[in-house]
Design brief:
Radius of gyration: 34 Å
Low-confidence stretches: none
Oligomer: single chain
Helix content: over 70%
Number of helices: 1
Structural class: mainly alpha
Distance between the termini: 115 Å
Number of strands: 0
């Protein structure tokens, strides 16, 4: 009887260790998954920042052209 109890305790101990190990593996996997997601988000932010910079530069150029055309049109009308 005592031997069966010891055997059951060993089995339960192994299950607990395995469960904790599985939890740790799952936890590590979750951290790696989160890290990958954050890396992807950082890449997206960099891409969007570059696109925004290009759009701002294009707007600045177009605004300068509009001012130039407005000035030319005003001079043409005043003559």
């Amino acid at each position: 009887m005592l031997q069966k109890v010891k055997q059951l305790l060993r089995i339960n101990f192994r299950i607990i260790i395995r469960r904790r190990t599985m939890s740790w593996i799952t936890f590590n996997f979750d951290l790696q998954e989160r890290y990958m997601q954050l890396s992807e988000i950082e890449d997206q932010v960099k891409t969007l920042t570059e696109q925004l910079s290009c759009a701002q530069a294009e707007l600045t150029t177009k605004n300068a052209l509009i001012k130039q055309h407005t000035k030319v049109a005003e001079e043409a009308v005043s003559r």
